[in-house]
Amino acid sequence: xxxxxxxxxxxxxxxxxxxxxxxxxxxxxxxxxxxxxxxxxxxxxxxxxxxxxxxxxxxxxxxxxxxxxxxxxxxxxxxxxxxxxxxxxxxxxxxxxxxxxxxxxxxxxxxxxxxxxxxxxxxxxxxxxxxxxxxxxxxxxxxxxxxxxxxxxxxxxxxxxxxxxxxxxxxxxxxxxxxxxxxxxxxxxxxxxxxxxxxxxxxxxxxxxxxxxxxxxxxxxxxxxxxxxxxxxxxxxxxxxxxxxxxxxxxxxxxxxxxxxxxxxxxxxxxxxxxxxxxxxxxxxxxxxxxxxxxxxxxxxxxxxxxxxxxxxxxxxxxxxxxxxxxxxxxxxxxxxxxxxxxxxxxxxxxxxxxxxxxxxxxxxxxxxxxxxxxxxxxxxxxxxxx
Length: 387
Hints:
alpha/beta
């Protein structure tokens, strides 16, 4: 096999980002397999055809099940709301299709367990799966992980993580599926909190074992959307309930002893997509902010006090993760590049017969952390994360 036929389910915000990645990956990276944008799938035939033309897909289907019987589709890319992740991904794996599934992996731990079990069974037959925690593929995040793995920070003691947005800070912002627990599973906790859970565990190489959390819904009723596009929409005259959290905060303990402080909110007025991470160790510290995603700040505590200080590293050199395929040093990368790097890693793993990361098992572990935060908020008690 030299071509890899892709079937993408969903064509809105994430579908567009994934489409960009499938288009650009083979044009900048030397890939062992050529991705073919074979078919785009969605329920509205007219809107689907318009999206396929705009995004570069050859054909369309209005029933995702038809993708599973097509010989020209080898990989299913799931970009739907969370309530359909488990059904589509499990069916695809059982049909012998590789799967890329957007995060969070599922809406419940039970669904995530079923997905991880299906992925493990499929892997035994050479079928690969990966969950889309795309921010892992930001070059500065890759460098942060490398520095920690090399021992540059020593023993990790503190982890601080924030994901701050404001797209529903206006109480009259309309309802979308992201504010419906049945479709989304949770609100800020799962939508953006899942990212910082994964990122901190990825960078530190350590797992969260215990949490104490608090969830809050500030605006409990909103206008029903008359039209919707991406994260924005047009309010109608009817109103409906918000059934997810607007903000989540929690404390965490890591297996190796570090303490963590996490905050995820969609009510941080003025913050559009701020992911802020700081990791303190016995030998140094790292700091990252997605609003300056090409930079990593590193403090080396072994340097003389006279000249010691946080060092700004512009992560655009060819030696940095993924960067050699792009532009000369100092020519910055953006949001969309992480999705391209995700495609590169997945295709490479499939070609090599390797299990890509993050796996569905990794997604399940994050799902268990999210569930424990919800349980802690309800019970007002610390909750352990099952191993």
